[in-house]
Amino acid sequence: MNWLLEPWQYGFMQTGLLASALIGLACACLGVYVVLRRMAFLGDALAHTILPGVVVAYLIGFNLLAGALIAATLTALGIGWFSQRQTVREDTAIGIWFTGMFALGILLMSTVRSFRDFTHILFGNILGVGPDNLWILAAITGLVLLALTLFHKELELTSFDPTHAELIGLRVDLVRYGLLLLLALTVVSCIQMVGVVLTSALLVTPAAAASLLSNRLPQMMALAAGIAVLSGVVGLYVSYYFDVASGAAIVLACTACFGAVWLIHAYRRRVSR
Amino acid sequence: MSLPTRPTAVFLPYTPHRHTEPVAEAPAVSVRLPWLRYPGAKSFALRDIELTVPVGARIALVGPNGAGKSTLLKAIAGLLPVPEGEILIYGRPLGGCRHRVAYLPQRHDIDWRFPVDVQRLVMTGRYVHLGWLRRPGPADHALVAQALEQLGLTALARRQIGELSGGQQQRALLARALAQDADLLLLDEPLNAVDADTRAVVSRVLAKLQRQGKTVIAATHDLGRLETDFDGAFYLCEGREEPAPPGAFVGLIVGRERPLSAAT
Fold first, then answer.
1. What ipTM describes this predicted complex?
2. Quick check: B127 and A36 CB within 8 A?
3. Which domain holds residue B47?
4. Closest by alpha carbon to B176, among B151, B208, B206, B204?
5. Interface probe with A: pick from B2, B89, B120, B141, most Cβ of A within 10 Å
6. B10 lies in some domain
7. B139 found inside a domain
8. Distance (Å, rounded) from C-alpha B161 to C-alpha B159?
9. Residue B110 located in a structural domain
10. Is the Cβ of A168 closer than 8 Å to some Cβ of chain B?
11. Count of A–B CB contacts within 8 Å?
12. What is the pLDDT of residue B164?
């Protein structure tokens, strides 16, 4: 049993575990809406568009997380604005916007001599989270969970029946903006864990697995959170013992969870037939 | 998790300052539309419509598919911009009496795969009375239970909405409209492609609504049971009002057209 406990004697592993649990919780719960409202592409785009924000923050010696937050918020508002105009189709607009911003980020990165720090942004470094960033992560997760609780009925209704929402005077676009802002916050914290490139995995995979197991929204969120936190723990073990990149290990653990759930689901359907 | 709000908490409506009282003696609905088109569309969906529905009447909007029945209902529900003309609900402009108006959409307007159960779907009918932050209280649950029972859905209350048959889904939507406890019900094809059971239940509900003095406007393309379920009929074709076909039910006259036989 010693091998189970051994990693946790290091402070950075403890912080890493706590951080991944916090991030996993926020990602998984919000991820359920991302999956059900078919916003997966949007989550991915948000993750990519914050790259220039982070690079600029680095260049001027500003907190990277804060830089990411500002960029993500601006992007969320921009996407909301764009999709209201409907001059181009929404997925096209997002595609143009996100590749452009990502390219700008890479361009800015190439002006800096050392590329090293930026690999953490691209691929995540959960073990590099400092205590001050841990507070920011806790605040983000707290805010996301609070908003999901307080506005549960509005988020739910606008997701499955926007017509009724509109009828009773509930602003569907306002709720969507709110959701985009929450998504932006979550994506920023997610990037600490698995980086820009793999962020959407953490948003989508646990929630998708949960959606196969349950057809109740709160239960789905709880299951997704469980899967995300478990994947975080498993990924950290794998990364500790095999000395591999933690972000990739966590994402693969999520993928494995989804695979297992999918098999259970397929088996159940065969039995019930 | 302890929740910060109780049913007794302050009412924060979704659209503030809009819950106005009806004008005394005003008809439930009065519509005057020179034309109406969908935003971005070039052709007119409705032309030259005048309709006055007194309080307590049950009116059928009759016409083939594409006649503009759904468009007219959506306009009355306040779901379409009305650039010219006027729609008054209880004598007030659109949006003034939101909580008094329930709208039953066509089934395809809803994402039936979404993980909510029947009871929750019906509960969304109470949201206009709850507003932001407030959670449903005992009174809301009682109204939902009552609506479910009226439509014979009590046994299905905990089913995910996608597991229902078409007729049951239609009944669930009608249950929501009842749970809203509205005075004006706008029903888009409540009898479209439903089983005999559902048809009977819907008929019973329509009769009960009349006894309660509620106003109902329902779109239908079925000429069959008009006189049993409705007090009057308004015929539409290609976006315009039409005189009733010979021998068809007319009842209460709500439009401008007189039946052909009466005109001679």
1. 0.87
2. no
3. 29-263
4. B151
5. B120
6. no
7. yes
8. 6
9. yes
10. yes
11. 71
12. 92
